[in-house]
Amino acid sequence: MIDIKLDLKGIPVPLRYQPIYKIVMLLAILKYGCQKPNNCNLLKLHFYMWALANEENLKILLEIKGKMRNSAVPWVFQPAMSKVITLTVINGLCKRDIKSDDLQVQLMPEGDEVLRKIESLDIFTSEINKIKTVGIIPVSTITSVNKNWKLF
Fold first, then answer.
1. CB neighbours of 59 closer than 8 A, spacing ≥ 6?
2. How is the chain split into domains, by residue range?
3. pLDDT per position in the chain (152 positions), as tens?
4. Are 33 and 135 in contact (CB under 8 A)?
5. Interhelix angle for 125-134 vs 19-32, to 10°?
6. In sequence order, what DSSP letters do the residues of the chain get, joined into one string?
7. What is the number of alpha carbons within 13 Å of residue 133 lying toward its C-beta?
8. How far is the C-alpha of 116 from the C-alpha of 122, rounded, in Å?
9. Cα–Cα distance between 24 and 118 in angstroms, integer?
């Protein structure tokens, strides 16, 4: 009989696909991309996360903010977003609530504290600075440009 041994090696997962990255980005979007009380709907969260995926997407979001563009290109929802939101809710970093018939995610003081600690350690600095650069875009703006998709 042949003796078979499996030597499983870890496969590195790029940072942008790891849960901690998505959690920190969610917290930063809620803090720097939303008006007080630091909450927004899922459409806005998905749109910001899509914009962080690459520089071209980020440029589109900045053009929308600067009113140089009134349409969006076809974009995708982030498949892990519901899991990330659930992790932040379970750990007391965020809370979910229905407001105006829309699911809202809100930053809690514990989430703000975690984000402050991350920033003090200079972790995810460039990504957080991208969110700060975009800043606050009203949900109504995202909703209206999302109705006007253009391929180019």
1. none
2. 15-146
3. 566 666 666 667 666 667 888 999 999 999 999 988 889 999 899 999 999 988 998 999 999 999 898 888 888 888 888 899 999 999 999 999 988 888 899 999 999 999 999 999 998 999 999 999 999 998 888 888 888 776 55
4. yes
5. 30
6. ---------PPPPPGGGSHHHHHHHHHHHHHHSS-TTTEEEHHHHHHHHHHHT-HHHHHHHHHHHTTS---B------TTHHHHHHHHHHTTSEEEEEETTEEEEEE-HHHHHHHHHHHHTT-SHHHHHHHHHH----HHHHHHHHTSB---
7. 16
8. 10
9. 8
At 45, the amino acid letter reads L
With tokens 């140089």, the residue in question is 68
Tokens at 87, concatenated: 């992790």
Residues 110 and 117: their CA atoms lie apart, in Å, by: 11
Rounded (5°) CA angle 150-57-121: 160
Residues in the chain: 152
Angle 43-86-38 from CA coordinates, rounded to 5°: 55
